[in-house]
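The records we work with from here on pair a chain with its fold. These numbers are not coordinates but entries in a learned vocabulary of local backbone shapes. To see the layout at work, look at the sequence and tokens printed below.
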Amino acid sequence: MSQSHAHSFFKDLDTNSALRKKCFSCRTKADLFASLKESGFDFTQEEFEQEVILQLFKCQTEEQFDNVRQKELWFKMYG
């Protein structure tokens, strides 16, 4: 498992509509992680949370901040 996978996923989520659709079709966090692993993103909940912190630190605009928070809230939706 890798922090770099969480970073790549975070970036790809903005530009890869097929990835977003695949993720949004998942019903549970276990389904989501299985789908992500199948797509080449093997990371843990903690690594995702660390990536959120890193991305928030890099924000220079309110729009960037909102984008990061939206991803974080979406991910938390899976419980």
Remarks:
- Residues 3-76 form one domain.
- The CA atoms of residues 21 and 42 lie 18 Å apart.
- Helices lie at 3-15, 17-24, 29-38, 45-58, 62-76.
